[in-house]
Amino acid sequence: MKKLIAGNWKMNGSLSANESLLAEIKAGLVNVSTPCDVAVCVPGVYLSQVQSLLGGTSIAWGAQDVSAHEKGAYTGETSGAMLREFGCRYALVGHSERRQYHGETDLVVAAKAQRALAFGVTPVVCVGETLAERESGDTMLVVKRQLAAVIHAVGHCVSEVVVAYEPVWAIGTGRTATPEQAQEVHAVLRAQLVAACTRGSGPRILYGGSMNAANAAELLAQPDIDGGLIGGAALKAADFIAIISAASVAR
Ligand code: PEP
Q1: Is 4-249 a CATH 3.20.20.70 domain?
Q2: 4 FRET partner, CA 20 to 30 A, in 78, 89, 219, 249?
Q3: Which residue numbers are catalytic?
Q4: What sign has the CA pseudo-torsion 50, 55, 57, 62?
Q5: pLDDT tens, position by position, 17-70
């Protein structure tokens, strides 16, 4: 399976910073032979800029959220149709920062995934346990519950999503899951996805949580890690390219 490296810029960037960052990433990619799939998920206000800078390149782009609703009186939200119009291939859904700061429940996340698919945008469904949940031995229970809600909502279309396992305690903390810890969870998610899909090995499962240039190769070498969702390191072209290079070798 070809790996996918997706950057999550979070609430970072400016018109000029985005232009330089993407120029450096495009230039760096030229030196990667047969690169893996690459995407950047950017703040909504920059989608138009990113569409014009990345249109015609092999780098895809996406949003960091999508509305669970089709259209109408939902102030501040962005619909799947709007994302599609701006060429988004992906939309993150259920990132832990959205679950934590915006109260997104498993049901809301599932509805968002369903809505994205309906508009031809691939949802990158984020699941992951908090430190307290890991320490009380509930990791598998939590991630399986989060994923089950999405599977229940989208049915056999689950083969069209991307899943990202992001332990909350590893996001933006510099504390990465060990390759063994990540693989253990990915194997459980894989089994759940394969059981829900009618054929094939199911969707790609990315790891996210302080993945960087130094630890990417080891994580990406795990049999059930199909790529990475990268926060901080996606804002530095050299680091992002190093991760892409590691993913392009680890097939
Ligand atoms: C993320 O925001 O999805 C993420 C994985 O962040 P970081 O790489 O900075 O931990």
Answers
A1: yes
A2: 78
A3: 95, 166
A4: positive
A5: 999 999 999 999 999 988 999 999 999 999 999 999 999 999 999 999 999 999
What are the pocket residues of ligand 1 if the criterion is a CB atom closer than 6 Å to any ligand atom? 8, 10, 166, 171-172, 208-211, 229-233
* pLDDT tens, position by position, 112-130: 999 999 999 999 999 999 9
Rounded distance from Cα 228 to ligand 1 centre (Å):
9
Please report where in the chains the tokens 């392009």 appear, as a residue.
248
Q: Whose CA is nearest to atom 2 of ligand 1?
A: 231
Q: Report the alpha-carbon distance of residue 192 to residue 99 in Å, rounded.
A: 22
Distances (CA, A) of 138 to 31, 42, 102, 175, 193: 43, 32, 23, 19, 19
Atom of ligand 1 nearest to the CA of 210: 10
Residues above pLDDT 90, as percent of the chain: 93
pTM over 0.90: yes
Ligand 1 atom 7 nearest Cα:
231
CA of 235 to the centre of ligand 1 (A): 11
